[in-house]
Amino acid sequence: MVVVELLVQAFIGGLLLIGLIGLAMKPAVVRELRTPQGLLAGLTLAAVGGALVWLLATVPAARRPVTLVAAVGLLLAWWRARPGYGSRRGLPRGSLSVGQSLDAIHDRSFYRDQARRHGPIFKMSQFGRPVACVVGIARARRLLVDQADRLSGATLPYNRFVPRGSLRYMARSDHRDVSPVFRAALARMDISGAETDVREAFRASLKRLVSHGEACSGLGVRPRDYWGSLILPALAHTVFGLDPAHPGVSRIGSELQRLELGRGGGPIWRRRVRQGLERTRDAIRGALTDRGPRPGSALAHLLAAEPELFSDPTLSGNLVLISRLALGDLTGLFDWIFRMLTDHRSWLARLREEGPISTIVWLSGCEPQALPLAPRVVMETLRLEQSEFLYRKIVRPVWIEGRLLPAGWLLRVCIQESHRAADVFGEPDRFDPERFTRRAFLRTEYAPFGIDSHACMGTKLTLALGALFVGELARFDWQVLRDGPVERDGNRHRYHWRPSRRLRVRMWPAGEVL
Description:
The strands form four sheets. This protein has a five-stranded mixed beta sheet with strand order 1-2-7-4-3, sandwiched between helices. It is of the alpha+beta class and 514 residues long. The protein has helices at 2-24, 27-33, 36-58, 63-81, 98-106, 110-118, 137-146, 172-188, 195-214, 224-240, 247-258, 267-287, 298-305, 313-343, 346-354, 359-363, 373-384, 415-418, 435-438, 459-473; strands at residues 121-126, 129-135, 151-153, 389-394, 398-400, 403-405, 410-414, 476-482, 487-488, 497-498, 504-509. A hairpin with an 8-residue loop joins strand 9 (487-488) and strand 10 (497-498). It contains 20 helices and eleven strands. Helix 14 (313-343) packs parallel to helix 20 (459-473). Helices cover 54% and strands 10% of the residues. The mean pLDDT is 88. It has a domain at 158-509: CATH 1.10.630.10.
């Protein structure tokens, strides 16, 4: 009997050890262990495991209850990880295992593969929290719009620092009150009036990239480091109504860059975010002391509608958050545009043949099929990259196509996977801006800016600045000196994929010979 019990204990211990080693070897765990916080957590778990081993070795009476607990835990983990778990209750298929959760962080094709295997509605977990995943824009739109009262925003920690929350996560009643003034200001923003200054700012930054690359003795420069210096002057002119050369713009940019919204933390992080929101608000207001914002800018429209904007913490806080998120999102978009034109050089030649097109030509009612090539490059980049997902919290149970999405779960709308539907986008993995000339895509097919009332308000600005960037980029050519695989911006499910930080290029004006 003693021998059998020892064999059972060894078997259970072996299974547990193999499982833990398997998890520890996952790329997401290895990456986490390279961070100070991850290393501390790993050392803590190792210490706890060592203490448990010592306890079992020195106190034989503890072996039986520990083995029983381990066996029950392993059995429950296996049962819950089965793809068919909960199917009798109507739950979607898919695994809730920890291993699958870690795979989703590292594997770019995870959600697409899961949809192929289990269907367009499937389940997985993110660090133990169940997540219902939905593929298909039309399907997701029915869910988000028709079942809006059963969903709420899946907020990030920075949301708490603005009264009534940020527009991205605001409750429906508050969003109905606050969003119209921002939506109207961004829709009425005069982008064409800022076009000349924006082009000059883009051109100046690209010329700096050229000169710095020449000075690096063949090592090249990382292009992503230059996108912020393109985007900030454009935001200064179109959003804040400031001359990009205004000394206050530099301070605004510094404060925006210091706002670390994507990372939660302890008291130090919370204090920094609160102070950062206040400093950025004061920097914007301070830059307007000598004169008001340029007529036609978003801020001019905002102040006309809400003269006490800077005294209202909800309005001023959201102005800062919109600006910070726009800076980050546009930087990511420009990075992917550069990557796409790096990998598909033939489109650069097409862009040069077409020549620069004024934004006013296509922002004033141009049919989608008649769009110039530059905005189509932006739209195709958004289809393939950058627009990856939407998250919501399920606050009341939802049924969709015979599947139950329980309260307390997260909902992930898989935008990127939806944009690769073969029946909508022929050859969906191919970069093909011409697809937008062959047909107009419905809002239930193509939705890079969101689906419901919380959709992005900066569609016009994003397409305009992106198209201007494409046009100016076509004036140059470049050589890749160093590169690497695409990578996540962080080691969590909510972070986006981006081109490798190893990318280094040398750039020169098109038509010149190296």
